[in-house]
Amino acid sequence: MTRRLSVHVTLAVVSVIWLIPVLGLVISSFRPAAEVSTSGWWNAATSPGELTWSNYSNVLDRGGLWQSMANSVLVSVPATALTVTVAAIAAYGFSRIRFRFRGGLLMLFVALLIIPQQITLVPLLSLYNDIGLTGTFVGLWLVHLGYSLPFAVYLLHRFFAGLPGELFEAASLDGASHLQTFVHIVLPVSRPALASLAIFEFVWNWNDLLTALVFLGGNRQVAPLTVAVSNLVASRGEGWQVLTAAALVSMVIPMIVFVAMQKQFIRGILAGATKA
Length: 276
Known about the structure:
Layout: H1 2-29, H2 33-38, H3 54-60, H4 63-96, H5 102-110, H6 118-131, H7 137-161, H8 165-173, H9 178-189, H10 191-207, H11 210-215, H12 225-230, H13 240-250, H14 252-260, H15 262-275
């Protein structure tokens, strides 16, 4: 009982600490520019002062915001679907198909996680300029696929490898091919793991700023929401009250995705913990 209470208290303290920056973001989004520039958000607890919706009006009235939000959807959804699909196929191959050097290739593939993303940006950008993919959604989908695939394959490989062998033996006795086994057996029982990976990938792709800045080449027609939000801050650092409001607006769609898939996400996390 004492141990359980200490765990609950620790989790509550960590949760409060985790939520403090979010609370500051919410409070700052309702404060006027004069107060944001002269006092910290925590001062609102003792002297609330004037709260205003003008920051949100300023953000929502900007013509390019909705286009940027649509661009984020056009980037995140296909990139997530592409990553989950390719990762599932690769993870099934590494976990259930026997071939030479399978273990070594998997280790080499997963080892790509240790390569810093920043050192690959310049060579990739040079290649993109040569083949004409700079400033296109397709180019950004492929970048997200390349950077996300090692982690995605590792995650799904661990899950697929833990599936009961009897399922695959029964499928083999019934004459099922690898494609039939993958589509009719592995994918249905792996929905929680696939949903968890999809949520992770969608949030990462949605929040990405660096690769969007590099590979979209400053093209405002295809700029995602993160780029539009970063441009709200003036060259001298003004406009933080608008930036906080825009940041909260940008959180709406990821929150909707998480709430819609939270049951599958929790099942995937619990399944992974059980198998580990």
